[in-house]
Write a structure and sequence with these properties.
globular, binds flavin mononucleotide, five-stranded mixed beta sheet, NADH Oxidase, 2 domains, 32% helix
Length: 275
């Protein structure tokens, strides 16, 4: 891929209003190739299903101007939410690199129609879908209102998300060293209703990811939207750490760090200088 993930992350936004012109065959082929190259550190396998809305009667009340959607399904398994977050976000960023807009959708869709279109089996889950297409020149009034409603252009300040050794010590940007850029890219990640539920503790050479759980994001049948958010954040960290010349080793190590209420450990990356 020609573009840097850092630039893609800085330039990406959710796209809900498309130009109505569809996607050419070559671009579609590229998107299908991207979908084949979306691994995740859990080694979890998932299927990216390319769908026509017209053909399957699919609807999302927030999307206009495209017939094309991608739904992602996988076997229900431990850590499926985080794994899906990581893999699907890589697809979102790769799509962005060829000018294709996307919008993570976990709620505002006719879920039954999507599940039936992809023949979802009993032991499978399909937490999220995304439209794909070229962004319209102007956002619809609905899209503008939605962005305003969740403050989509804002993110929490650095010291609210990142910590130094324990949860009582906010990490200062000027003390983050070589982790500064990857952490800034975590900060910009998209999340369900823009809640940014990831919290990160840097302990020596290891970066621990946690979920700050909110109410009503976890559903037995669909998954935990906020664990998906943490998977997205981990994707941003891993891709951009590697891009800045760091190596990463993924581990689930349950660190002995006291957690605030409603904060749950997810996974860690040990980083080392790869150059
Ligand atoms: C897991 C997840 C689920 C989401 N579900 C929806 C949804 O159902 N409908 C919607 O319009 N946007 C949805 N979003 C998009 C967020 O609202 C959006 O990412 C956030 O407001 C930040 O805006 P940005 O993506 O433009 O940076 C979802 C995002 C994530 C990561």
């Amino acid at each position: 891929m020609d573009m840097k993930y850092t630039d893609l992350i800085c330039g990406r936004r959710s796209v809900r209003t498309f130009d109505g012109k569809g996607i050419g065959d070559d671009v579609m082929k590229q998107l299908e190739a991207f979908a084949q190259d979306c691994g995740n550190p859990y080694g979890a396998v998932m299927e990216f299903c390319f769908l026509s809305a017209k053909e399957h009667g699919l609807k999302s009340p927030v999307i206009s101007g495209t017939d094309n959607f991608v739904a992602v399904k996988m076997k229900r398994q431990p850590h499926f939410d985080e794994a899906l977050g990581y893999s699907m976000e890589k697809f979102v960023l790769d799509a962005c690199s060829i000018g294709i807009g996307t919008n993570w959708i976990g709620g505002t869709m006719d879920r039954k129609a999507f599940e039936s279109a992809i023949d979802l089996a009993e032991d499978e889950v399909m937490p999220c879908v995304t439209p794909i297409g070229h962004a319209a020149k102007r956002m619809s009034i609905k899209e503008v209102a939605m962005r305003k409603g969740v403050g989509a252009d804002r993110r929490k300040v650095f010291g609210e998300l990142f910590f130094d050794g324990d949860f009582n010590t906010p990490l200062k940007e000027d003390e983050a060293g070589e982790l500064l850029l990857p952490l800034q890219m975590v900060r910009l990640a998209p999340s369900a209703v823009n809640k940014q539920p990831w919290r990160v503790v840097v302990e020596g050479d290891t970066v621990h990811f946690y979920e700050k759980r909110g109410k009503n994001f976890d559903s037995k049948s669909v998954g935990d939207m906020q664990k998906i958010d943490v998977g997205i954040a981990m994707c941003h960290f891993d891709l951009t750490a590697k891009e800045t010349g760091l190596g990463t080793v993924f581990e689930i190590s349950y660190p002995q760090i006291e957690t605030p209420e409603n904060v749950e450990y997810i996974a860690s990356f040990r980083v080392f200088s790869a150059e």
